[in-house]
Amino acid sequence: TLQKKITPWQLMAASLDLECERSSHGELVVFASFVDKPTNLGGLSRTCEIFGVRSLVLSSMEILNNKEFKSLSLTSEKWLEVAEVARDIATVTNYLHHMKAQGYTIVGVEQATNSVPLQDYRFPARSVLVLGREKDGVPPAVLHLMDVCVEIPQTGIIRSLNVHVTGSIVIWEYTKQMLASRQKEGA
User: Phi/psi class of residue 52: alpha, beta or left (left: φ > 0; alpha: ψ in -120 to 50)?
Assistant: First the structure.
């Protein structure tokens, strides 16, 4: 058995300062404006790029220059559409309303009274995944804007996963569903 990790041609092009097309295979938008820690955002950026997320939304583009962010992102932000939406409630509300008007379903990842277990939820192709702040989750002031909340079933004592881990699990579930849907269409 051999390891399949290789240096993608895009990374070689980046080292040569060549312009390459950003990768995007899906309609998923990951809204991470509430996430604070550079390491969590760097890991999310990497996950988003790997799974072909359309866009990663951050509260500030300044994070892209942060050393901790870069250590986890591994240049993924160069191959991923990154947008900026300030985390104040009015701006977030306007953004989510705009995305709804564009035909997106707003999916909060939150342990709420009506949350759907992740394994039972079927993602629409056009989804905005709203991730909450570390420790506090999705702010109550915007929870009512969610079309649905999903949660990852847990059996341990600790009440939640790290936001980067949570985001990665939910992004993978979305990706699995979209791949299965494409496979059915092709069959």
Answer: left
Could you tell me which of 148, 133, 168 has the C-alpha nearest to residue 35? 133
pLDDT band at 7 (very low <50, low <70, confident <90, very high): low
Q: What is the token pair recorded at 64?
A: 């892209």
What pLDDT, in 10s, does the model give residues 68-105? 999 999 999 999 999 999 999 999 999 999 999 999 99
| Beta strand extents in the chain (DSSP E only) | 29-31, 55-58, 81-84, 105-109, 116-117, 127-130, 148-151
Exposure string of 15-24, with b = 16+ CB inside 10 Å and e = fewer, is: eeeeeeeebb
Residue matched to tokens 């977030």? 92
List, in sequence order, every beta strand (DSSP E) within 32-130.
Answer: 55-58, 81-84, 105-109, 116-117, 127-130
pTM listed for this prediction: 0.87
What's the burial of 65, exposed, middle or buried (CB within 10 Å: 0-12/13-18/19+)?
exposed
